[in-house]
Amino acid sequence: MRAPAKLFLASSNPGKLSEYRALARTGAPSSQVDLELIPGFDSLPSFKENASTFAENAVGKALYYSRLSEGLVFADDSGLVVPALGGRPGVHSARYAGPKATSAERIETLLGELRGKTGSQRVAHFVCAIALAKQGHAIAVVTDRVQGTILNAPSGSGGFGYDPVFYYPPLKRTFAQLTAEEKNLHSHRGKAFRKLLGTLDVSQAR
Hints:
Blueprint: E1 5-9, H1 14-25, E2 33-37, H2 54-66, E3 72-81, H3 103-113, E4 123-134, E5 137-150, E6 166-168, E7 173-174, H4 180-186, H5 188-199
Helix pairs in contact: 4-5
């Protein structure tokens, strides 16, 4: 039996690591993968995510940190895209209402920009890009998305970010109204990560 591939997440956030561990189990119970944070991540020089696309930010971050640490390193970038707003908030999703804004303030900004827009003008999608690298060489880059619409007001207490206003038609609920298991199965991040695991060559981790 092959030993699990070991992947290091380019983050110091244990909550994000726990989320990825849950994603690895959702819809892919046979995945042979061991996920850890990059040791000493906070002591490493930080990477500036200033590219214009999710994929460029993910690749840049994975390549950067893979040069500073051992093993397979993966990094992601994700956000909300609203075509009627020219793609905003896009790669600026986390700082849409300012660098220190709360999720509620970002949602308020989004709903303000969408005021008066109806029907197809409120169509949106979440995007996630994940890149895998080792010692400065890219191994895989994957992206996925999930389509929905933006409600006029938040609904639901779960999730985070824009989840309370992102209505997912197949389940007739917002992402904030889904269980953790439902969201992991249907989310852009879950779909992208399982796609990454599908491309992973376990032998590279040996």
